[in-house]
């Protein structure tokens, strides 16, 4: 499918020493930063870019070996799951604007089971690809192109001893890319949910101006990657019916451990890069303790730095969202990072040790990551787009009876426009051959996304690939200031809830996606094609 390209033997041999070097130097840097504050708090290994002879700009080379691995999750036990390089989460990629990500995926998974259902039922669980969630990069070719398929060997190829296939991804990060926290995960329609709840996810840090703010530079820089695992009998069950995970409680791991402990000195400020690498659950986060709570001083949302920190006692992250926060140690004691509705803490914070005196400062202002858009920038106010998440139950025979539709502007046409649309097998469902939105580079448009979901368990976060969107209104009420996002939470059980955003389509043409980031819904068809075209 698409233009999946296999890496030649020669480039693989060349790539390996570089990967080793990057992992060692980056890993040391990451470990040293974390060790300063929290000797026991886990951090994924770090890869950084390096200059190549004759290269114009530094390249971050990383190999991802993907296969079933028996992984130890401290605080939980052992699970057998698909991993990047035998661990979860995957390595942290630290890159700067102007650099290039050169990623090689090895597919060491078993052959795919045969698939007889339609396109919007789970399929090809052992194929994948890669999405750099939130990054403003090309969606085409061998870049952030989620239409590619990194297939495993067929049974015949495995029997014949054909080497495991390798797939190359090359992503140029624009020189002016906002500095902040992003993440990567597989994004093959039909296989996405099962892979992400098994732990296939990792963090991307784009370094830049915000890191040079003196108060932030002085703070320990910690990744807090929250994976939502769905495990039963030590494995992720195969996605074989609509009730796939009913009854399996989520296990939340932070940097691969259940409830790890982080240490913070009184008066010390740390920067936490919170990543909701979840597929099902929205997180309302708080840091609470017997001596009160620790406020979260948010400095960025979805990778884009605010103009100034915003102090919050609770922080909402929908599936896929990130937030960078500064946290300062207060009264010594034990605190917990908790998500509302999750019975166990995500991590424990021990405020302990010699106080930092005078206490470390918080910045007053920040280098804002992106200028705001304005309604006056809208090209054609009559062309507002409206997107409605809507589920119809009992539409299909078989194990996947529900239709998870995206209705409104550009909805996929019904198979029978005169029939009962609630029973229609195509209306509003993902069709790989249908372009739902043609978006012209340079144009500014306004979208309103709405849910009419009455089932509380069915949140429908909206995620647009390639371009960040500026959230201006919630339920018609203006936000002051507006907030850049790539994923906007719409909570289940609140039919009518809406979010309005402005977006300018910039720089990159090609096929891309808009979809619900409850990943089971996405696999079952709650996705649209967008086509970015020259203006
Ligand atoms: Cu959904």
From TrEMBL:
Gene3D superfamilies: Cupredoxins - blue copper proteins (2.60.40.420)
Residue ranges annotated for the Plastocyanin-like domain, each copy included: 69-208, 251-340, 429-530
One Pfam family, short name: Cu-oxidase_2
Keyword DNA-binding tagged: no
UniProt xrefs under InterPro entries: Cu-oxidase-like_N (IPR011707), Cu-oxidase_2nd (IPR001117), Cu-oxidase_C (IPR011706), Cu-oxidase_fam (IPR045087), Cu_oxidase_Cu_BS (IPR002355), Cupredoxin (IPR008972), TAT_signal (IPR006311)
Domain of life: Bacteria
SUPFAM superfamilies to which the protein is assigned, alphabetical: Cupredoxins
Keyword annotations from UniProtKB, A to Z: Metal-binding, Oxidoreductase
Entry's Gene Ontology molecular function annotations: copper ion binding; oxidoreductase activity
PANTHER family hit by this protein: MULTI-COPPER OXIDASE, MULTICOPPER OXIDASE
Name of this protein: Copper oxidase
Source organism of the structure: Streptomyces actuosus
